[in-house]
Structures are given as C-alpha cells and as structure tokens.
Amino acid sequence: MNKRFICLWFRYLLTDWLTLKRPELKEVPFVFAASVHNRVVVTAANSLAEAQGAFKGMALADAKAIAKSLEVVPHIEGQEEKLLIALGEWCIRYSPQVAVDLPDGLILDISGCAHLWGGERGYLKEMLTRLISKGYHVRGALADTVGAAWAIAHLGKVKPIIEPGGQAEALLDLPPAALRLEPLVLDRLHKLGFYTIRSFISTQRSALRRRFGQDFLLRIDQALGYEDEPLTLLQPAESYLERLPCLEPIRTRTGIGIAIKTLLECLCERLYKDGKGILVAILKCYRLDGEIIQIQIGSSRASSHVARLYQLFELKIELIRPKLGIELFMLEAHKVGDTDSEQEYLWQPEGCGLADKSLSALLDTLANKIGADKIHRYLPQERHWPEKSLKLASSLKEPPATSWREDRPRPSLLLPKPVSIHVSSILPDNPPMFFIYKGVRHVVKKADDAERIERPWWEDKGQHRDYYVVEDEEGRRYWIFRSGHYHDERSGWYLHGFFS
C-alpha cells in the first residue's frame, strides 16, 4: 500500500485560540509579542493586524506605527505546542498516526483510512470543515509524501489533493520555501535567481550539494519520495472502552441488561484502579440489520459504582429496539473524572449539602429522565445589575467565588430580562398604587422602601434603578423597579422577579 499523508496548516493558530477565549477580539487587530535578542518583536498576528501591515517577525514598534489601534498580547511560551497536541489528539479520530509539526501544523499518516469517509476528497473535506467550525483558519493538503503535502498546504494555489505519484509535477512551480529550507539557503537561492523549484531541480546533485549542503538534497528527496521522513507520533491517552461481542444475537430486555452489567463491571474495575469515575458514558448496540443504537447517561459526580451506573442505564433500556438482535455491545466512558476518596467521605457530617452523595444520585436520576439541560445550578458573582449577579455552575463541585447577598430580599424567580409594566403612583418617588402586567391589574396593598442600584461606573452612562418589593391584594409579591428619575423622559417601570 502506498503511503498517503495530510498536512494541516493553522495559519493563525495562536490568534484563533485567543479569539475563541475572548470573542470581543474578533473585530480587533491584535498581535502577540515577545522580547527576542533585546528587541520586542511580533510573534503572531491575526488577519486584521496583517491586513494593516503587521506581520510575524516585525519589530513591535514598527507594527504599532503601521497598524492603527493595535492591541498587544504577551506571548505565551510553549502555547503553540500545547494547542497542536490538543488538536492532534482530536484528529486521532481520523487517523491513529498524528504528528505535531511545529510551530503551526499537524501531519497525519492516513494510509488505509480515507475509504471510511467515502474517499480522499470527502475525508479531507470532513476534517477541514470540522476544524473550521471550531473557529480555526486551516488549510490542508494530501499527497504521497510529508514534504509535498506540507508544500501544497502552505503554498499551493490550485488543488489540495495530489494524485499518487504526482508530487514532482505539483512542486515544480512552487517557490523554494516549499521545500522547508533554512532562511540562509533561501536567501542564497534568490540571489542566484532561483525563484521556483523548477529552476534548479534538474541541476546536477553534486553542484547543488557544493553550494547548498546535504540537507538541501535531503529535503528534495523527502518531498519527492526518494527518502522516508520519520514522524514523532502522538501517543493518545488510554481510552476507557469495553467491547462485548455476542455468540447469539441478543433480543430481550433481560439479555440487554446482562450485557450492560458485564460491560460496566469490566469498565469500572479499570476506572477504579486509576482513581477515575464515569461522568458521561455512551453505550452503542450494533444490530444484525446494520443499524447502531446509542444511548448515553451522565453523572454529576464521577462514579465507578456498578449498581448506581446500571440504575441510570436501566432508565433508558426501553429505548433500545433489538429487532433481529444485537451482535455487539460497546461501552465507552466518554468523559471521566477523579473520584472522591471513600475514606474521606466517612468523616463528613450527615446532611453535608452538595457533598451528599444521595443528592448527586437524585440529580443523576432526574437528569437521565428529563434531560441534563433541564437542571441548572447557579452561583453568585459580583455584578451590579441583578440579572448579571449569577452564573451557571459548570459542575456540582464548583465552589462559589463570593457569597449570596442576604442583606436585602431577592426574588425566588428572577426574570432574565425585566418586563415593562404600566404603573400609577401618588407621588413620583413612592411605590405604585397599582400596576398592569400582561393585561392584568394588580392593586398594591404593601410595599417596602426603595433599594437603589446604580449602574456600574465603568460602563456607558445610563440610569439607576429603584427597586420595590410590593404585595398585591391576593398576597402575591413582586420585585419591580423604576429606571432613572421620575421626571426623566427615558424613565420607566419594570417587573423583574417573583417571590414565592
């Protein structure tokens, strides 16, 4: 089998990564900069900065002089390699042989893989589309050699897929830089008038060796396929996956349950030894008719407890339709986490809140019945506006950065956006006599004094809010506010929450 390689080039690797972390930079020209030999130089620039004339390798002072409103970010040492390793591990789904090509690329040995995606064109398109959808600018090329794939990905202008044996012809009209040569060699080639590979490829090898060295010939041979190019492949993290082939097709609920228990026992034994537990597990059932049925469970706390995990799967066994029968079961711990020490748990007091395992078990049951997206946990955060003073917790264990406010009453149900209401009041600074919400008139019987919340000083100028807790004739309590002063034409009344 002929070798086939894909080169992926992430032209804006660092800047794309930072833009994903800080979306506000999407419309801002910015660069990374670092001190190199007592000079501060640009180490990476986004496309907007490049459009204004700021490029990698340029002195930062020159870049600032050329590019207007340029934002500068300190360079993070080693970040490129970390990003490429993460992207490379993601690409292992397409090929088990992936190598990092510093500073901004990946090399994949895809020999024997492309047919799984309907051919090389569909294979490359699928890979590039997925990476672009993640927010990365990426170019890719496919050829018989690493050197040819690299050259086409970085400098090719026509087709990204080079037919088997076609690398020599594809390289001829490219500049010498396509051979990954040293800057000193490239400068020497340009001075001699060699602006394309075609201009020197037929020159006697002895003459090329004398002028440019043995490494020059090695790069040519690697690109053309005369010399192998060794790759340092990424070693993927061990996957927690168990397979259970069936001698006879499984058609009953009992048989499916036994298969799930068997897989869980094997998987949880491995996880327990590694101090890990399941957060998300995926079961795939391969039927005789070629269909694959998939169900998924999630746990709010990493667990390797077989009985507990089986209870979660049991809620979804009815979704598995075996029809002619299932011939293969595969169970994967899609997401794992460190488990709590059982020894430490013994010393925790009863009723320990979020640390109570019975609470996490209840949440797991509810989440797998009605969907994890229906259950939320909120944490307080330091913000002036009430609708911004809380955030979604990423997990059951995430600690709050600050404490909930207790000095003033807060509604049990806070609307994400205040709703405009019609109000009538006796005096401008008094609470209303009544208000109309969704066409219903509510007469106010009781009201607390106003609580003023000012707009954050660092934001653009705006109006303050005067909040009131009011109670209507039926005993229902509401949180309403007036924005700004009564005499201000922009002033208005809003409903923001309900008390239980």
TrEMBL record:
Keywords: DNA damage. Residues 15-151 form the UmuC domain. The keyword DNA damage applies. InterPro entries: DNA/RNA_pol_sf (IPR043502), Rev_trsase/Diguanyl_cyclase (IPR043128), SulA_CellDiv_inhibitor (IPR050356), UmuC (IPR001126). The keyword Nucleus does not apply. One of its GO terms (biological process) is DNA repair. Gene3D superfamilies: 3.30.70.270, 3.40.1170.60. Belongs to the DNA polymerase type-Y family. This is DNA polymerase Y family protein.
